[in-house]
Amino acid sequence: MILVLSPLFSGIVNKQKNFFTGRIGAPVLQPYYELFKLFKKETLHAKTASFISRITPLVHFTAILSAAAVLPVGFSAPLISFEGDIILFAYLLSLSRFFQILAAMDIGSSFEGMGASREASFAVFVEPIFFFTLGSIAFITGLTSISSIYDSIVLNNISYLVFIFVCSISFFILAVTECSRMPVDDPNTHLELTMIHEVMILDNSGFDLFLYHYSSSIKLFIFVILETSFFGSLGGGNRVLEIGIFILIVFFLSTALAFVETVTARFKMKNIPQYLLFATAIGVLNLLIFTFTQ
Amino acid sequence: MNNFIVFFFSSLFLQIFSSIFLIVFRNNKKASQVFHFILLIGLVSGLTSVLSSILSETPILFPTDFPIPLEYFRFDSLAFYFLFLIQLAGIPITIFSYSYFNHEIKEKKSVKSTLFFYAGLLVFTQLVVVVNQAVVFLVFWELMSLFAYLGMIFEKEKKEVEIGSFYYFVMSHVVVFALAFFFFLLHRHTGSWFLSDFHMNSDSDTLVPFLYLLSIIGFGMKAGFIPFHFWLPKAHPIAPTVFSAFLSAVIIKTGIYGLLRTFQFARPVSEWMGWIVLFIGIISAVFGIWYAIVQKDIKKILAYSSVENIGIIGIGIGLGLIGSACQSFPIQVIGFGGALLHTLNHSLFKSLLFMGSGILYHNFHTRDINQMGGAIHRKTYFAVFFLIGSLAITGIPFLNGFISEFLIYNGFFQAAKELKNHYPLMMLLSAVALAFAGGLAVACFTKIYSIVFLGSQRTEIKKFYFSFFDAFSLGILALLMLVIGVYPIPLIQFVSQVLGDGFVKGNPLPILSNLNWLSISLIFFALLAVFVILFLLKKIIYKKYGQRTAPAWGCGYEKQTPRMQYTASSFSDELSEIPDSVLGYQKIEKSSNFPYSDKSFSTHSSDFVEEKLLRPLFKKIQAFSLRFQFFKTSDLRTYLLAILLMVIFYSLAGFLWDS
Q: Is residue A159 less than 8 Å (CB to CB) from chain B?
């Protein structure tokens, strides 16, 4: 399901963004067309590239996909779930990152080097945020499987509500950073100096680029799922209601993302660590709330 | 079955005996061949005896008529674990040593004495972990340090070698001093010199913290925890790679061995000791790797990364101590188990990476990674092995590093679950610190790998040397890492056997095997399947829609040169600037007006502990000692008088003390 739906979300976000800026914009299904187009294109490899940049798209895609498999999707159980999968989830993301950085440096071009350097630096701050959000519940309840963490959340408890609120902010910041969204990264400019993720895949084309784009839309969707799963219990077992809630929240999130992208300009690269530290600080707050209310 | 004893000691004898051939053969090359061959046989037979003894699980009987006094030795599970570790890392390092010293022989250097020191180092390291008598332990410990020192000064004509080895030398003496004190205290308390008799009785509350303090100073300095890490980045780079690999993979682990033994001696521990070890571990993990990122010298990076990994091991030990203080069985098991596992894992990947750095040094003739580049296009196998090593050390899933880090994270969860109150908060902060160190490690090892292996070559080299023996030794290690990463259960069983023998009361196996090792293996195979399917799909698509190589996209700029690539310093610039005062990170820029081209730009970093703590301290000591310069006369009689006065003083003191 994640495989099918994830490009749709990017499509919705783009459409809404266009709506906010007063344009008509591409159809919602545009990401699918683009992926299909890339799929059919000839693949180019740089002369300086080695086997690293050939296998990376595959490794990247596989890692992201399996990370997604650990998550519950609001109304259905995850594909894989075991105690401790929260650690596996975090480390699978770092596997994908490791290879992506290598692939970027593989070309030996300074553009990609720039992206790789930025990715490596910002990623350092991303993992702690993850532990501060979902991890904090794991530490309080002792549950170490993501789906059971979500199951343990009760919505009628005030501290959980505050927690969800704080987590949502953190997840939002994470999503923005990890998925090359506006205040951190701007994938739409035509200046390599201002980009992070897009500049790393500058020399990829065809099937490789297809995999990269596909996995980055899955990655964005992962964060959406992380958010929606908080409200999984609202449906109360009713499948239709659960799906309805899911769609509602997804729509709400895409609107938020599009809105933020429209009203903010990209940060200076130097300021991004501060932006991420802000998310970390919120995470600490989150934790204090938990420690004192329980 | 007392075969083990005979087998083991004869394997040790074979290892030391191998150095005879260094004298027998005049020809350097032939001597090295025979030496390494015999040494390897010794190691392999040692490993076989250890393994068969572990697997058979029969108690070891000591033969009565044995030429060596056997009561000085003890073969418990912890000793076996470390023997296993030393031999497992020692075998590939020895294979590598052959091809490494071949290079030196080609350059007409005399290697015989250094080879002898290597054999001595191997033997005494193995003896250190099995010895049962405190004084003999200290003697072997000192011999081990000495052989390492002697091997380190292989290129003694260089200034940096002189400095680096001096750091090591001073460090090992401070360590021995602390350890001597440590053992004397234990002896005074228990009245025995045997390690197996060192148990605390009820009135030892005041002694235990003191013992831990000494142990952290002594063994911790050998292991390289911050703030005692200063010798690592000095001593590793200057030693021949064989020795730096052995130092990092094995010698610093003897410090961990000592810390674990301390836990066996000194119980009950109070909780704050656990917190101290945990805190030191976290500091070492985070700052060790942060220092590593700033460096340009590949061996320095690896040395600092050893500090990080020792920190992770320390986190495990700290958790175990906390668990012991809170009388929680699972926390102890997971904490100490994680520490033990990571000790073995680190010795595997770190020896691989160090050996890789030796191969790079022989090819590029420099340790500065900014001069390297594009090695992946020269030797693919080498690049693959080094990649596996880098992935493993960052704790990426399905390699052995992940297994031990997974265990330690689980320890955090366990501690948070069992001990409520403020524990979840502390454990979460520790987990975040470990995750942070993990992120930094990703940055650090992508940096090494991409600067050294990827892109295009920065300096021209004609032929890339990568011998069969290099490939073989790296290959064994890479394979081991993969096997442990995918199927860790046998190792987990071994670890729980060690824990059951002298660490915890009860059977630790259920707790360790309750974690989902099998699902990790299953996920690995599922992922592998997805990967293979995608790979085949990719082949089909390439056939259908075409694929070709073209020059890299230069944004309209045609004349790309290798010098324009991202360098080590530029890659890590953003991360180095954040804590620049701690890292001593500076950018030095010299510029001149346009037509003159004597521009230069360099970055520089220094070690906080060395610059801010050690140097001022030694300056103070120096200034203090200079005050006594007035003694320095040319008159011999003054010195004699001083000696006489001292003798009288000591005799009086002894006399008064006795009465």
A: no
